[in-house]
Amino acid sequence: MSDIKKVVLAYSGGLDTSVILKWLQDVYQCEVVTFTADLGQNEELEPARAKALKLGIKPENIHIEDLCEEFVRDYVFPMFRANAVYEGEYLLGTSIARPLIAKRMVEIAKQTGAQAVCHGATGKGNDQVRFELGAYALNPNIKIIAPWREWDLLSREKLLAYAEKHGIPIEMKHKQGGSPYSMDANMLHISYEGRHLEDPSAEAEASMWRWTVSPEAAPDKAEYVDLEFAKGDLVAINGERMSADKLLRKLNELGGKHGIGRLDLVENRYVGMKSRGCYETPGGTILLKAHRAMESITLDREVAHLKDDLMPRYASLIYNGYWWAPERIALQALIDHTQQNVNGWVRLKLYKGNVVVVGRDSKTDSLFDPTIATFEDDAGAFDQKDAGGFIKLNALRMRIAANHRARKG
Amino acid sequence: MSDIKKVVLAYSGGLDTSVILKWLQDVYQCEVVTFTADLGQNEELEPARAKALKLGIKPENIHIEDLCEEFVRDYVFPMFRANAVYEGEYLLGTSIARPLIAKRMVEIAKQTGAQAVCHGATGKGNDQVRFELGAYALNPNIKIIAPWREWDLLSREKLLAYAEKHGIPIEMKHKQGGSPYSMDANMLHISYEGRHLEDPSAEAEASMWRWTVSPEAAPDKAEYVDLEFAKGDLVAINGERMSADKLLRKLNELGGKHGIGRLDLVENRYVGMKSRGCYETPGGTILLKAHRAMESITLDREVAHLKDDLMPRYASLIYNGYWWAPERIALQALIDHTQQNVNGWVRLKLYKGNVVVVGRDSKTDSLFDPTIATFEDDAGAFDQKDAGGFIKLNALRMRIAANHRARKG
Amino acid sequence: MSDIKKVVLAYSGGLDTSVILKWLQDVYQCEVVTFTADLGQNEELEPARAKALKLGIKPENIHIEDLCEEFVRDYVFPMFRANAVYEGEYLLGTSIARPLIAKRMVEIAKQTGAQAVCHGATGKGNDQVRFELGAYALNPNIKIIAPWREWDLLSREKLLAYAEKHGIPIEMKHKQGGSPYSMDANMLHISYEGRHLEDPSAEAEASMWRWTVSPEAAPDKAEYVDLEFAKGDLVAINGERMSADKLLRKLNELGGKHGIGRLDLVENRYVGMKSRGCYETPGGTILLKAHRAMESITLDREVAHLKDDLMPRYASLIYNGYWWAPERIALQALIDHTQQNVNGWVRLKLYKGNVVVVGRDSKTDSLFDPTIATFEDDAGAFDQKDAGGFIKLNALRMRIAANHRARKG
Amino acid sequence: MSDIKKVVLAYSGGLDTSVILKWLQDVYQCEVVTFTADLGQNEELEPARAKALKLGIKPENIHIEDLCEEFVRDYVFPMFRANAVYEGEYLLGTSIARPLIAKRMVEIAKQTGAQAVCHGATGKGNDQVRFELGAYALNPNIKIIAPWREWDLLSREKLLAYAEKHGIPIEMKHKQGGSPYSMDANMLHISYEGRHLEDPSAEAEASMWRWTVSPEAAPDKAEYVDLEFAKGDLVAINGERMSADKLLRKLNELGGKHGIGRLDLVENRYVGMKSRGCYETPGGTILLKAHRAMESITLDREVAHLKDDLMPRYASLIYNGYWWAPERIALQALIDHTQQNVNGWVRLKLYKGNVVVVGRDSKTDSLFDPTIATFEDDAGAFDQKDAGGFIKLNALRMRIAANHRARKG
């Protein structure tokens, strides 16, 4: 361990990472660089600076960064081009933030001459994998410190005792047990795990949800919203063009207001167990629905089906932490290639938890051809007789087989 | 054409198939056997008998059958085992009824000595393909008559004129133009296409929907419902075991009441064009959500992912009319094999268009292991140190590549 | 038909397309533009000019083009980047030439103001589909004339009679029945179908094969050859850099000499029937083996597996005629993306039908890391203890399931 | 460790596993049960008994079993039904033996009351994963001892010193350095890794190969052989029905004689590195070729393509050690389902490394229909006009898109 002189710690300013900070100083006897990222989790980050200073971190070693725009533009939006959903339900809100944090940690390590990076993710979860696969892919020689896999502070009592002993400020909420949930948030979503949720047969408590109102409490009047897309990415809401960051914030506001994007599921972790999680993804839920609708009139059928066939694989790659792996990048090349014509607008109706597509159009790229699709007289645009041959040849192999079976008796 | 002496006609009793009936008698000069199936479309079928008699069909040539139980048990339920959704949205309500109709037509043809079958599906749509691929797969030598691809009655005016000339009763609604939509219904869904919907940018009219109330008009109070599954199939609702037919009717009732299952989309037809359709699938929407939740605690991760990877292909097969094809049957063998442990119950909350999973459990087959999943002390059930090696080896290929890139410079 | 004033005919100069030429003049009463492509089929093309002139084609309407370099560079090589093989065996020699012919026909039609294109492919085969899908994709309004689906000259006797009647020169070989096989050739392969081969239980006649010697007749001494790749494409043989065209000619020469690349198989045609074909693909067989070996040390594992998973789909697209379809192009974007590091060389031993890889290396891009792979002491490059955790977590879901089964009894 | 009283050791009788045996007695101080399996590796197994006795194993603790028939029937044949090939080349000879060994180890542990199993596979390879995933899947609570990941005998010198010190007989070959290769054999194949092969650019030494003659040394005269299949499995050679075991032995004999089945490749291990291996799979190479040919006339096209699409995944599962995983078993259900009609015979020509299919037929299940496939007059079996509509509708989406592009300009 003596070869680690400096370490970059992903530091939230909370109790757990403050304990880790202290523990690194004690056990590894190394200089600690803190890295605190604003990913839109709706938390004040300056207190993290004050706390880091108090714990003896040099001012120049404290890195607090606003990554919101980069996060949405370079991670969230590319993922939504793929309509990525894990196991049919989960919108990958936690998963997609990890690669960016891993990247910045490795970059800050390089910049500050640190040999190692350190994170506060548990040894049972997916996040450790996502952080570390990302870090290794970007710097194969980086050292990684994962305290939860190393130390013996495995109970809350031990952690609090350690904090007390080392003069780490403990807020009242931690003394009282704090939130009953293990939570994670960024601009795409907030997640809840643990405690009450560990019984998958029990309904989540109404008080748990933080970002959305319940459908019951949402407005009684529906709201219409127009989303505009360019090359598969959202570019404007109700005619107003905004940065990626602002667009997602706006969608979150709309979704939160209308009770949209709550999810309660049991998922399969990469490390092998099933786990129950609850999520709020208000803006993402709206965006996914709209993007699919946008594609429905602008993508060729077989391209859309190819994307659908590959989507679960792509989603698993992100869930499992392979954002920086060459196979994710290769799939992204295909996905991005398909989005060049995904331009136009989608109209949605938001109402008490529902996101309903009510209209979609593309001035430049619609493949919907009303002269062919019509149930009215199409003036010869489509020769119905063609269907006879189409069916006959598609049936041929089955007819040969059926004839064979008949002969066989 | 002289080799067709007798033909089985898929007969609804409506104007179109009545015109076809007459046209077959005229043009093919053959005996017509009518086949009218009750698939839960919520229509009286006895009028079809009266009308057929009036059009000169012999009583013994009129076949009216209640296929509801067979439909749900042998077609709808097997499809839901696969969580089949076409193009991310469509629950395949029309598609799944066609194979059963094709099968009964071929069987009745055999039983009555008919050489041909005839249907009233348009030459532009998917249904002709589904009927005919099914018929050919089951009887490779059957003749198929598809009047819309043969005759010249391509406008509504010509059709009405033909009807009038041949004494086919025309109801007032047809004279007035009838429904503005082309509709299809069976116990799984009702669909709307055409007219106003041919502009995909325009919202569907509120008056169009028939099976569900709007979310706005749904009760202000949520309703909880418990669904019980055995081998992947729904077997009981709120503790009451019922036949497949009754179960789906009950789900439809619940969904209809709570404004669940409306869908407005643009889909890609097998014959090559995009088409806009609106659907109400109240019970199916509930069932799909519940089945996925049931699988979430009873299916192995990799089995679930295998199913997810194959699902779009399976759904396309059904959409395109390949129910009776050997590849659909091979996939079904895999899917059915996976369902043996899909036993337990799911609790749902229904509220104004929302189907929310709030709990799930399986006394016999839950793979959710709280002793391992817990965020609390797990008493050694999971050794967090294992994760280090897991990550290291999964990262190895990326580290080798990164080292290589670094050397390459 | 009167709207077709000019038609571009894919003209080989042989009997069949000469009859078609005449038939077009007679039946369509239109001006005929002939297009004869040199794709490396090893045939003199100037006789086609003389024959066309004799049949009344204006000199300026005769197009004879050497497409060899374009064919190999833009069609064969991109396909080999994917390691495309149809149904586990067939190297797609015929399939890959059709898109280029279709493209040139459409371009010549545009350039000459022709409304239609015409080909001599049978109505039972794949080639008609490939020509026509290509033509339609490139010019949706082109008219296509497929005489074999229109005329009644369906027997060889009728064809000869027509030729005789219209003064089309009939070579002796045709009078004597000609080759017993239906053949197609281009620089990638030569194919044989029909006659004797229509009994798939019977061995092909030794006299049939034209491009390769039999393994028995090949040299008794093996020959070593070094192939060099850049970005997945062959660029040099035995150190000599050549154009794509020359490289494939050289491989064909080597393969032909050593009895390499004969194939006898039953394949599934897109139009629905099984068909028996024999193929000689001497150069392609060598190239495929070498390309796979090149990738084996330069491609990441998961990228290689992704390519393997997608390959059958890509191959089917080409077989079925979808070269110009957007889904093929999207897949190609992924495939080409993966090839940037496929650089290096492969050493092969050629001997009596065998292509044996005996060595491969990449100075710039080898991911083979001997310090890790070694069975000897690796000085800590790989920590074997990591494997324990790797296995434990990969086994976890199966252990949970097994424990569950045990409890269930 | 004190909870391990008894351990089942996979014991070959060679130096390595003898050292392990001793080491277990020393370090774990437990009773050792030896398990030696005859999988057709062509080695005398009785010496293993003598050696075990000499090392203090009780006679009743020595298990030597002939598993040849079970191996071929229940592992090799099911795998060949899938045409499984890893990374386009490797026939999975080592991989497929591991699940059976794992199963027997777990069964013997249960029968003898052992708490643990132990194997001699290195911590860098695939075999440890295969053994252990199998063992865990079959008994989730089994303890596994992997000495190579635990001890410090990591060099050959240390191993020999340990053996000498503990009185383990060292054969002359080990003193002289032994084989230059790390080898594994069973009835399906023999493999070579390490030493000279660790340079993938260097040709394997001619003296390495043991089971096959070189093509050069093979007979100058080809040999024909007829293979008969029932439900996808080989059942007879040249008309002689034999047990699975005998059939594969016979194929190995034929392949070995004719220089068939040598392979030299670089593969991607599950643990993350590339590795160079050479393989001889004489019988398997013949069997794979024949099985594909058998399927070519008996399998429906889309079923065959479904199998091809899934094959790489199935092969990876076996390569990675997931034979006993539920997803492999689910895939097997599909694969076995498809094999019911794979009945008939295939004729092969074996000559100097070449396996050439020259004929195939199935009296009961051929889907090859000569009346349709024929190039001659088919008397209306296939209406060529049908192809027009088939192509038109398949082209429709591309024509709509092309028209759109043209309008867009």
From TrEMBL, chains A, B, C, D:
<dbReference type="InterPro" id="IPR014729">
    <property type="entry name" value="Rossmann-like_a/b/a_fold"/>
</dbReference>
<dbReference type="InterPro" id="IPR001518">
    <property type="entry name" value="Arginosuc_synth"/>
</dbReference>
<feature type="binding site">
    <location>
        <position position="130"/>
    </location>
    <ligand>
        <name>L-citrulline</name>
    </ligand>
</feature>
<keyword id="KW-0963">Cytoplasm</keyword>
<dbReference type="InterPro" id="IPR023434">
    <property type="entry name" value="Arginosuc_synth_type_1_subfam"/>
</dbReference>
<keyword id="KW-0028">Amino-acid biosynthesis</keyword>
<feature type="binding site">
    <location>
        <position position="267"/>
    </location>
    <ligand>
        <name>L-citrulline</name>
    </ligand>
</feature>
<keyword id="KW-0547">Nucleotide-binding</keyword>
<dbReference type="Pfam" id="PF00764">
    <property type="entry name" value="Arginosuc_synth"/>
</dbReference>
<dbReference type="InterPro" id="IPR048268">
    <property type="entry name" value="Arginosuc_syn_C"/>
</dbReference>
<comment type="similarity">
    <text>Belongs to the argininosuccinate synthase family. Type 1 subfamily.</text>
</comment>
<feature type="binding site">
    <location>
        <position position="191"/>
    </location>
    <ligand>
        <name>L-citrulline</name>
    </ligand>
</feature>
<feature type="domain" description="Arginosuccinate synthase C-terminal">
    <location>
        <begin position="181"/>
        <end position="400"/>
    </location>
</feature>
<feature type="binding site">
    <location>
        <position position="95"/>
    </location>
    <ligand>
        <name>L-citrulline</name>
    </ligand>
</feature>
<keyword id="KW-0055">Arginine biosynthesis</keyword>
<dbReference type="GO" id="GO:0004055">
    <property type="term" value="F:argininosuccinate synthase activity"/>
</dbReference>
<comment type="pathway">
    <text>Amino-acid biosynthesis; L-arginine biosynthesis; L-arginine from L-ornithine and carbamoyl phosphate: step 2/3.</text>
</comment>
<feature type="binding site">
    <location>
        <position position="37"/>
    </location>
    <ligand>
        <name>ATP</name>
    </ligand>
</feature>
<keyword id="KW-0067">ATP-binding</keyword>
<feature type="binding site">
    <location>
        <position position="126"/>
    </location>
    <ligand>
        <name>L-aspartate</name>
    </ligand>
</feature>
<feature type="binding site">
    <location>
        <position position="126"/>
    </location>
    <ligand>
        <name>L-citrulline</name>
    </ligand>
</feature>
<protein>
    <recommendedName>
        <fullName>Argininosuccinate synthase</fullName>
        <ecNumber>6.3.4.5</ecNumber>
    </recommendedName>
</protein>
<feature type="binding site">
    <location>
        <position position="182"/>
    </location>
    <ligand>
        <name>L-citrulline</name>
    </ligand>
</feature>
<feature type="binding site">
    <location>
        <position position="127"/>
    </location>
    <ligand>
        <name>L-aspartate</name>
    </ligand>
</feature>
<dbReference type="InterPro" id="IPR024074">
    <property type="entry name" value="AS_cat/multimer_dom_body"/>
</dbReference>
<feature type="domain" description="Arginosuccinate synthase-like N-terminal">
    <location>
        <begin position="6"/>
        <end position="169"/>
    </location>
</feature>
<dbReference type="InterPro" id="IPR018223">
    <property type="entry name" value="Arginosuc_synth_CS"/>
</dbReference>
<feature type="binding site">
    <location>
        <position position="122"/>
    </location>
    <ligand>
        <name>L-aspartate</name>
    </ligand>
</feature>
<keyword id="KW-0436">Ligase</keyword>
<feature type="binding site">
    <location>
        <begin position="10"/>
        <end position="18"/>
    </location>
    <ligand>
        <name>ATP</name>
    </ligand>
</feature>
<feature type="binding site">
    <location>
        <position position="279"/>
    </location>
    <ligand>
        <name>L-citrulline</name>
    </ligand>
</feature>
<feature type="binding site">
    <location>
        <position position="120"/>
    </location>
    <ligand>
        <name>ATP</name>
    </ligand>
</feature>
<dbReference type="InterPro" id="IPR048267">
    <property type="entry name" value="Arginosuc_syn_N"/>
</dbReference>
<dbReference type="Pfam" id="PF20979">
    <property type="entry name" value="Arginosuc_syn_C"/>
</dbReference>
<feature type="binding site">
    <location>
        <position position="90"/>
    </location>
    <ligand>
        <name>L-citrulline</name>
    </ligand>
</feature>
<comment type="subunit">
    <text>Homotetramer.</text>
</comment>
